[in-house]
Amino acid sequence: MTLAVLGPRGTFSCELAEKIKEADEEILLCSTIHDVFVSVTENQIRGIVPVENSEAGGVGETLDGLMQTDCKITAEYYMPIRHFFASEYGFDEIEVVYTHPQSHEQACEFLRSLRDISIIHTSSNSQSAKEAKKALNSAAVTTESAAKLYNLPLLKKDIQNSQNNITRFLEISSGIILPDKPDKCSIVIIPKENRPGLLYGILEIFAKNGINLTRIESRPSKEGIGRYVFFIDFETDRGWQDMVKNLKKITGIKELGCYKNRSLTE
Ligand SMILES: O=C(O)C(=O)C[C@]1(C(=O)O)C=C[C@@H](O)C=C1
Predict the structure, then answer these.
(1) How much is the pTM?
(2) Which of 107, 192, 187, 220 is nearest to 155 (CA)?
(3) What is the rounded CA–CA span in Å between residue 16 and residue 24?
(4) 61 to 33, 35, 180, 202: CA distances (angstroms)
(5) In the chain, which residues fall in CATH 3.40.190.10?
(6) Measured in angstroms, how far is the CA atom of residue 242 from the centroid of ligand 1?
(7) Which parts of the sequence belong to the ACT domain (predicted)?
(8) Which residues' Cβ are closer than 6 Å to ligand 1?
C-alpha cells in the first residue's frame, strides 16, 4: 500500500505518516493537500491530511477536499505540534521568514516580536526550511525533522503561542470502510433552504437522540455570500443511524465517514 501526505519530507504530516505506516507501506509526497485528495482518489490508496488545529482552527483545503471528492475518513489522530525557528543567520541578520500560513497563526506572537522582517508564506513547514536554506538573510518556521534535513541550525525551540498546540489529522481512503464500533462520525450539512429555525431543528435532532457533538464548523458553500455548509463531528456511543435518517428528512447531508480514534504510540 501507499500513504499519500503533504511533502516535501519533514512536514508534520510526513512525521505522522512515518509513525503510523505499515512496515511495507511507501510514503507518497504531494505538493499540496489538494494533491493528497487527488492521489487517494486516482490511485485507490490512503492519505493523511491535517483538518484542525487547537490554535488556528480548520484547515480550509482539507475541508474543501472532503466536500468535493468521494474520499472517506477512516481514522483520526491527534498530534502535539512544536514549531522551531531555524536559520543559518543570527537574529539581527534575518530579513525574511518563510512560514506555512497555519504555522504563522500558531506562532504569531513570536513572529510579531521580530522587528523589520518580511513574511513569505509557503506550501508546508518543510518547504519553509527548503526556501530558507536557499535565500540570503532568511529563516524558517519549521519542524525539527525539516531543520535537520536541510541542515538549518535551530535558533529557538517551541515558538508556538501555546504549549498545548495540537493538530488533528484524518486518514482518508477512496472507499467506505465502516469499523465495527466507530468512535465518531463526520457529516456535512448542506442546507437546501434558508429559513428561520433550520439549524435549530438540525441541532434538536442531535439533542433529542442524546448524541454529543464534538465539533461544528461553518464554511462558505461557495455559492454566494451568506451561504454556508456545516461540518459536524459526533460521538457514536448511542444509536446514530436512525438519527442520520431523520436529519436527511430536513436537510441535505454528505456523509464523510465513521471511524476510530487511533492514539499515537511514541
Ligand atoms: O506543513 C506541515 O508540516 C503540515 O503537515 C501541514 C500543517 C497544517 O496544514 O495544519 C500540519 C500541522 C500544523 O498544524 C501546521 C501545518
Answers:
(1) 0.95
(2) 107
(3) 16
(4) 6, 10, 30, 26
(5) 2-81+165-173, 84-156
(6) 36
(7) 187-261
(8) 6, 11-13, 50, 53, 59, 81, 100, 102-103, 124-125, 143, 167
